[in-house]
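Researcher: Checking consistency across runs. Here is LicD/FKTN/FKRP nucleotidyltransferase domain-containing protein again:
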Amino acid sequence: MQVDEHLKSIAICSAIWKKYYFSIPERILFESDINFYQIPVDKKGSELNHLKSKYSKHNHNLNYNDLDNNNIKKKNIVSRNDNIKLMQKLDKIYLKKGFKPNDLSLKLNVSAPTEDFTYKPDQLLNDLNQKSQKTKLSTEEKNYRSFLQYSKDFQDQERFYFTFPFIHIDNDAELHHYNFPFIKQIITHDERLHVIHHLVRSWFKFCENYGIVTWINYGNLIGWWFNAQNLPWDNDVDVQVSIQDLDKIGRLYNNSLIVENPKNGNALFWLQTDPFYPHDGLGKNFIDARFIDTRTGIYIDVSALWNTPNDPPNNLYPSDMSEDEKKKQVEVHCKHWQWFLLTDIFPLRRTIYEGAQAYIPRKIETILNRFYSDRAITETRIFKHNYQEDISLWVPDEICNDKPNVDQRFDENGFLTIEGACNNSLLKSAYDTSKDAIELHRKEFELYKDGDKDTSQLSKKELPVFRQDPFEYVNNL
């Protein structure tokens, strides 16, 4: 009862915060198969009818009445079917005006230039101040100068910019992995995996559309190693970008509300940058941006990498690397002082992660061994889970702590039998729904281990969504 009361209080506080204190979106980005449509927002309010009029005004060929829906007005909810119809209209208008579809498929062997990892905010601020004395700054330049000044003046004021709810009885720090004020309730680990499944797909599509180079790192690489799925005990996703690409996100896309491609789900994602990202913040803010599911508070952490004059650790370089070779390397780090060589990362590998196209670093084993030791890819019993290789899944020990000794693990179609799933319907469903992704990763991983052979054909197309939107039912209540 005590936990329930605390959670009710958190949910109420979250609702009040969003209603009265939270920023109205700067823009709405509507994801489709061929484009992200940017919709301006009425800063005086965010009621649905205001947004609909903006859609109509922005697209002259779109009839306002066509967007009316009595059901929407009554419920103040936009259903997935409503969004599909809207997407179809926007796509039709876009193509009718002569624009070509954007290819949102990820490219092969992507890299970022070295200069993208250098950023000097004080110099940028000084340059803008000097320019303002000679000529009139544009609105964008004025806003950027104000931002740089604010970030410089108040960088040490905040302990953490991205906050989480805290209650003293949360002994397992479960609430640390929800972003306030979007948390409404604690969700199950299975529901969390479903949310992450949708977050990953939309994040990489967003970055591809806007020319941002991003990749998965840290613990999610362990997930990729075993089955290209998020580890069941991993509560979020960690991605990285260059500091210049983070600055691009901050200047152009901060405080954006992204509508998920309605063919995939009915989620809304909030993209927000830490206003102190230009500075290290004395170790107070390690996370530079977040891509947040607004219905749950589950998120992708975004960290920028910098090339700075700081001395890297000695273990950054391979033991057999010569001094001459070391001098040729470009060392980068995040605000948490995790170091990488750019040759560890680039050119990025295109892969399939959680069924979607994604990028991972080039030297996977080098990074995993440096951060986690070789146990990261050899340990098969951890966090009350055991890895069962024949089904490529981490199975909770409470279901079964080893592969079951049964005559028929799989049926004639390759799906798990209920006996083969330790008589657990959830495990059977987990395997059956992700079976195609598991088999695809096995093929990719075999080529990777066999001399790092070409895997491009396997990641050319992503798989259909296989973890359905867990909260879509809300729209039907």
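Researcher: Does this match what you'd expect to see?
Model: One thing to look at in this run: The radius of gyration is 24 Å.
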